[in-house]
Design a protein that fits this description.
Layout lengths: L21 H24 L4 H47 L1 H14 L4 H11 L3 H11 L11 H20 L8 H27 L3 H30 L1
Helix pairs in contact: 1-2, 1-6, 1-7, 1-8, 2-3, 2-5, 2-6, 3-4, 3-5, 6-7, 7-8
């Protein structure tokens, strides 16, 4: 009798339509948290008072959010334009050099591990007409899947808004009537807690270890925060 128990595997849904934008989600939140915390740590180290640090932090949050949004829009739109240009050229290749494009399919499918006996059938199916051939080349040559293409506007909004949300924890303590040093301590606590949470949240789609991911975010921010504070102290002392 076989004592081995059959493993129960639960079907998991894929991430879906949000998958192309997780880069923007993590980058926006992390960049807002880390860059604004480094900013306030640097100016506190430079000797600014609480109100000046607060103004600097708010200005940095707004500037960073706008810069992030604009940069992401232009970068995503440019990438999409490059892909559109390549696909337009591919249509010309199919129209004028069709056999050459069909021949490329053999190499792509061999690299995928398709058996030689099946190559003719697979290539014939993928090159039955020009539209099917274009879709096949779009995926195999350019790695373009329509469902994975990114909207420049959506990428812009997610990056900018999430940057600003990420910038809130480092700034909030400077609204309180405390010394800059005390506010910076609370800023560090809130920022590191948020960074840990972002690292854990990321594992929802990466399916990796939540603790390892959280501490990875913490370590990067901690090293940067110490460096920014020390640089601020150095600059502040040199200007005094």
């Amino acid at each position: 009798m076989d004592d081995k128990r059959a493993e129960t595997v639960v079907y998991e849904e894929h991430v879906g339509s949000s998958r192309p934008y997780w880069r923007d989600i993590i980058l926006g939140l992390n960049d807002g948290l880390v860059s604004v915390f480094l900013l306030v740590a640097g100016v506190v180290g430079g000797g600014l008072d609480r109100s000046d640090v607060l103004i600097t932090g708010i200005a940095g949050a707004l500037a960073g959010a706008l810069s992030m949004a604009a940069g992401e829009y232009l970068a995503t739109k440019s990438q999409e334009q490059v892909l559109d240009s390549e696909l337009a050229l591919e249509r010309k290749h199919i129209a004028h050099f069709r056999q050459s494009e069909v021949d490329q399919l053999y190499d792509y499918f061999r690299e995928m591990g398709v058996a030689e006996d099946d190559l003719e059938t697979v290539v014939a199916a993928c090159s039955r007409n020009d539209q099917t051939l274009l879709k096949a080349m779009k995926v195999l040559e350019f790695g373009v899947v329509d469902d994975e293409r990114r909207s420049p506007v959506r990428a812009m909004l997610m990056s900018g808004i999430l940057f600003f949300i990420g910038a809130i924890p480092p700034i909030v303590p400077f609204f309180a009537d405390v010394s800059p040093g005390q506010a910076l301590i609370w800023s560090a606590i809130l920022s590191t807690s948020a960074l840990f949470a972002v690292g854990v949240m990321k594992t929802r789609v990466t399916r990796t270890n939540p603790l390892a991911s959280g501490f990875e975010n913490l370590l990067i921010a901690a090293l940067g925060g110490v460096a920014a504070w020390l640089i601020g102290r150095l600059v502040g002392s040199s200007l005094a």
